[in-house]
Amino acid sequence: MLIMEVHLPGGLPDNGRIERRVRFQPMTGRIEQALIESAHNPDRPAYVTDVLSHALKSIGDLPIDRDTVARLTVADRQYLMLRLAAMLNGEQLWLNVQCSHCQSLFDVEVKRSELPVKPAGHGFPHVMIAINDWQIDAGVPTGKDQEGIRGLEEQQAVHWLLRQCVYSVNGQAPTDAFFAQLTEADIAAIDEALDDVSPAVCDRLLVTCPECSCEQCTRLDHYAQLGLDEHFFYDEIHTLASHYHWSEADILDLPQHKRRRYLDLINRSAAGYGRG
């Protein structure tokens, strides 16, 4: 059964190494069903952790569980969702964009494999930042950090993340007094340093409206592009069960490409009977 392997732009720290090799589970109906059920989770970071926990087989030599997936950086999780979407639906993606100038709707074609991906910088996932008399050791935010800011106001979220990302100051654990002294400029400098060392996946496209020629940016939401249709999926299961009298368990164990092959045979057979 085909197993897809990719290399992360960042990677997962493990015992002094950075594990970058990731293997996906073979894409069976059972995995697709788990992904569909995960979509009901309203907490986006937790949803991504659910999805990747089901879809991944290993990171380096590490087996997959929720904690392992949550320790991945935000950009690595975006990258894995991007590759998972390509596994499920192919590299082509159509975006429906509303022009910010004339309000016209237009479509934009994107190739997932052609989206720019920035690799992690030197020292990843840590960066040393010199501000005033402080030597700050900070780390790139993770999925677990994202999950922790749910329900917080923007400013609260910024300060909460800051406390998670700053590991030490002058070799000591950061104190409340240190955080209280940080100015907006200091926080911006820490954020910029973390951006420099962090991997990144393109999440904005410059597009041109065909009606008014206005150039504008549109966002790519890698967490919303899996394209799994719950009703279509269960229609496929029902069709195979009705035609071949297989159990749901047997159908869910089929690889996606084999399930689609059987459905194609059913459709071709029905078309042949129709012509007769």
Topology:
Elements: E1 5-14, E2 17-24, H1 29-38, H2 44-55, E3 56-59, E4 62-63, H3 66-70, H4 74-89, E5 92-98, E6 105-111, E7 117-118, E8 126-131, E9 134-139, H5 143-148, H6 154-165, E10 166-169, H7 176-181, H8 184-197, E11 200-201, E12 204-208, E13 215-219, H9 230-244, H10 248-252, H11 256-275
Helix pairs in contact: 1-2, 2-4, 9-11
Describe this structure in words.
The protein is α+β, with helices and mostly antiparallel strands and 276 residues long. It folds into three domains: 5-118 and 202-224, no CATH class; 126-198, no CATH class; 230-269, no CATH class. The protein is 44% helix and 25% strand. It has eleven helices and 13 strands. It has helices spanning 29-38, 44-55, 66-70, 74-89, 143-148, 154-165, 176-181, 184-197, 230-244, 248-252, 256-275, and strands at 5-14, 17-24, 56-59, 62-63, 92-98, 105-111, 117-118, 126-131, 134-139, 166-169, 200-201, 204-208, 215-219. The strands form five sheets. A four-stranded antiparallel beta sheet has the order 1-2-3-4. The protein starts with a strand and ends with a helix.
Summary, kept brief:
The chain is α+β, with helices and mostly antiparallel strands.
